[in-house]
Amino acid sequence: MLASQLSFETDGAEIISGAVSLSDVDTILPAFGTSGHRPGARSLLLPQVIRDMVGEDGPMGRLAQRFCAPSDGPMRPVRVLLFDKTAETNWMVPWHQDRTIAVAERHDVAGFSSWNVKDGVTHVEPPIDLLARMVTLRLHLDETGPENGALDIVPGSHKAGRLPAADVVRLGRESSYVRCAAGVGDVLAMRLLTVHKSERATLVSRRRVLHVDYSADVLPEPLAWHARVQ
Predict the structure, then answer these.
(1) What sign for the dihedral angle of Cα 13, 20, 201, 42?
(2) Mean pLDDT of 186-194
(3) For the chain, what percent of residues have pLDDT higher than 70?
(4) pLDDT (tens digit per residue) in 99-112
(5) Burial class (CB in 10 A: 0-12, 13-18, 19+), 58
(6) Residues 10-60: pLDDT tens digits?
(7) FRET partner for 209 with CA separation of 20 to 30 A, picked from 58, 88, 127, 179?
(8) Per DSSP, what are the bridge partners of residue 80?
(9) What is the pLDDT of residues 139-161, one digit of tens each?
(10) Residues 6 or more apart from 78 whose CB is under 8 A from it?
(11) CA 218, CA 160: separation in Å to the nearest integer?
């Protein structure tokens, strides 16, 4: 299967070509110049240009609404990550599912488990039905081909639900996967439970991605999203 043939509902991922204009991409590139020599920055104080991009009225916010059931209410950004793969930060991530959400602080609520802290931000695994309603949008700010860290996904793997880590690795090794090459301004839409990985780049060139998780859910009190971008 080619990446261009992926279907969001069937495969758990889809590439939307030219979803964001090149001029809009240019407006947010300076934000990546301050992310430092780290694989990913969990931005707490987002520049206004990124808030405008990912908010409900921005190009990515409007795109997120396509993946929301009418009864759920509007999709809103609940986590924003800046990924900047370079020669100095040429990392890899093995097969996995995105199983956690970022919350303001820990409160023990039924159905929320496996608490941990990443870069000072509290994360937790929510009930699977909440995860299943969320969507990730990954905006590519550079040409991302097979040799510089394009994401690999296992089509349809989101339908298996939340899997033990060993089963995720086994599924990735034994299944056919698709490498999601993308151009500047293309967006990869993905279910959080879709099994995916990222290899180290073999042809090192900068690979910047704006990664945004969207949800229409309000968390049960006293839990609250860590940063719901307005």
Answers:
(1) negative
(2) 98
(3) 91
(4) 999 999 999 999 99
(5) buried
(6) 999 999 999 999 999 999 999 887 544 455 555 456 889 999 999 999 999
(7) 127
(8) 212
(9) 999 999 888 888 999 999 999 99
(10) 101, 102, 134, 213, 214, 215, 225, 226, 227, 228, 229
(11) 25
User: CB of 156 within 8 A of CB of 82?
Assistant: no
Note the pLDDT of residue 69: 75
Spell out a b/e string for 157-168, using b for 16 or more CB atoms within 10 Å of the CB, else e: bbebeebeeeeb
Other CB atoms closer than 10 Å to residue 154's CB: what's the count?
Answer: 24
95, 171 contact by CB (below 8 A): yes
Q: Tell me if 87 sits within 8 A of 73, measured CB to CB.
A: no
Give the tokens for residue 185: 């301004």
What residues form DSSP beta bridges with 136? 190, 213
Residue identified by tokens 């945004």 is 212
Q: Which two tokens stand for residue 229?
A: 């971008």
| Residue carrying structure tokens 């290899």 | 199
CB 180 within 8 A of CB 188: yes
- What's the topology of domain 3-136+151-215? Jelly Rolls (2.60.120)
Amino acid residing at 34? T
